[in-house]
Amino acid sequence: MATPKPTIILVHGAWHSPEHFQPLEKALHSNGYRTVSPWLPSMHYARLNVPPVSSIDDDVSAVRQTILSELDTRPDTDVVLLAHSYGTAPAGSATEGLDKSSRTQTGHHSNGVTALLIISGLLAPAGISLLDWGGGQVPPTMVLSSMPSPVDPTKEIKLCSPVPDPGPVALFYHDLAERDAPAAQRYASLCTPQVWVAHRTPLPFTPWTPAAWLQSGLEVFYLVCEDDKALPAPFQRLMIQAVDKEVAAAREDAGTAAGNEAPERKIRVTSINSGHCPFLSLVEETVLWVRRCCGEEDV
């Protein structure tokens, strides 16, 4: 019997939502994939009827619960995570102990997370916040604001949003706007402020740190967006190179200490001539990349 195609869990970035993934999900469904896209509470706490988040851990928990639900209800089906931009941080953290190799070693599970697909994502290490990892300064693409807490109106919560100039269309969807300006404006209108504390609290775990990655069988793929105005391609490549360099050094040290060669781990990189959101501007090309990452060889 043929191996079932994995379920793809799509994790949106800052200010975005599962609605931004709808064109990609529709295309994946037509190619036989089941998809799930959780709403991250750091942006969508009101929709989820929960208090504003107190740390990035709330986003991590939302992704992890989605993964576990899929693994438990479909024990013969693996999971592939696809994460965009900020979403890479909670998605990566959520994989702790859930990769297929780790679950198989326990002797209790036959399925697990087999791959992490990253689109223009942030490769911060565990134990540090995204803010501190970025030098402690608010990124130039963001602006901060405050609002009364819906839980206690006498207190304020800080929010971050895309800077109004040049704005989300120019930052995220400029290439889509060149072909379909109304669509770009519609997706910009769906953007939602994010609770700032998600960027100020440390990541609990990241699968691309050497100690974690050398112990797991997780495959990591990265789609570099060459015309990205929000996270420039040269910076994307610097992050990838830094991770690969650290992992290669740790792999060599581990092999020397053990007297044998540790398994190779390297981010598999593909580039695409798109802005920050190729799943909106280049849907067909993005789907082909996803299918190849999931093991389809003849596409």
Helical region count? 14
The CATH architecture would be: 3-Layer(aba) Sandwich
Number of domains: 1
Assign the structural class, choosing from mainly alpha, mainly beta, alpha/beta, alpha+beta, or little secondary structure: alpha/beta
Extended strand count: 9
Write out the CATH superfamily name.
Alpha/Beta hydrolase fold, catalytic domain
Give the overall shape. globular
**Main pleated-sheet profile:** 6 strands, parallel
Strand numbers in spatial order across the main sheet: 2-1-3-4-8-9
Task: Please bin the fraction of helical residues.
Answer: 40-55%
Task: Give a brief description.
The protein is α/β, with parallel strands linked by helices and 299 residues long. The protein has helices spanning 22-30, 41-48, 57-73, 88-94, 100-105, 130-133, 168-172, 174-179, 181-189, 197-200, 210-213, 233-258, 278-281, 283-293; strands at 7-11, 35-36, 79-84, 113-119, 142-148, 156-162, 194-195, 219-225, 268-272.
